[in-house]
Amino acid sequence: NAGVTQTPKFQVLKTGQSMTLQCAQDMNHNSMYWYRQDPGMGLRLIYYSASEGTTDKGEVPNGYNVSRLNKREFSLRLESAAPSQTSVYFCASSEGLAGIAYEQYFGPGTRLTVT
Amino acid sequence: GNSVTQMEGPVTLSEEAFLTINCTYTATGYPSLFWYVQYPGEGLQLLLKATKADDKGSNKGFEATYRKETTSFHLEKGSVQVSDSAVYFCALSDQASQGNLIFGKGTKLSVKP
What is the CA radius of gyration of chain A? Predict the structure, then answer.
């Protein structure tokens, strides 16, 4: 049981380049999330997917797109990277959503630097 | 809107010292409350949770009690170890946030031998 896996672990981009961060979970969870973590800011939700086939914006969605490819996979795309998107990105998954106290399981993170 | 406020860090303690990390929240409904821990170089993992008032969550010697009257969920441990050095996040989830977690900014704990 790998849990939540993310690729790549590290990435350096130049301003304007694009890339996709990959996330997969093997726990048969319905809900998946993308967060970014910045110093002194805690974690902020970018996008989430309550169930396969649905995606919704979180607190900081601008500059990002997501795809829930199937129940296991949830990718995050930066179409035109900006230095403000330098951050550590975490993917998470949980059994359910909607006010229920399900535990979220986190991946190891992707450290992205945009120069 | 909903929010979580944690005490500013970093916190530095000697081994076997008593730990308290304060957390207060603002929520319109009746949230569930969580403490997550992030060890160096890793993702977050759930430490403990409480889903209703007066519940006490506990795990690995850590405890936190859901206090509705003071809107607080302070994390405590009687005797910290070097291995407890990490960043601790308080978080809430409720219907207003569609079940999504709202995190505090995190408190970094360093425990010296």
Answer: 13
Give the Cα separation of A113 and A14 in Å (integer): 8
* pLDDT tens per residue across span A74-111: 999 999 999 999 999 999 999 876 445 678 899 999 99
* Single-letter amino acid code for the residue at B76: E
Q: Are the beta carbons of B93 and A101 separated by less than 8 Å?
A: yes
Which residues are paired to B64 by β-bridges? Answer: B57, B75
Measure the CA–CA gap between A25 and A32, rounded to whole angstroms: 9
* CB atoms near residue A24 (< 10 Å): 20
The amino acid at B90? C
pLDDT in tens, B66-88: 999 999 999 999 999 999 999 99
Residues in chain B whose Cβ is within 8 Å of chain A: 32, 34, 41-46, 49, 51, 89, 93-95, 98-101, 103-106
Q: Establish whether the linkage from the previous residue to B10 is cis, with ω within 30° of 0.
A: yes
* Angstrom distance (rounded) from CA B34 to CA A102: 10
Q: What type of residue is B33?
A: L
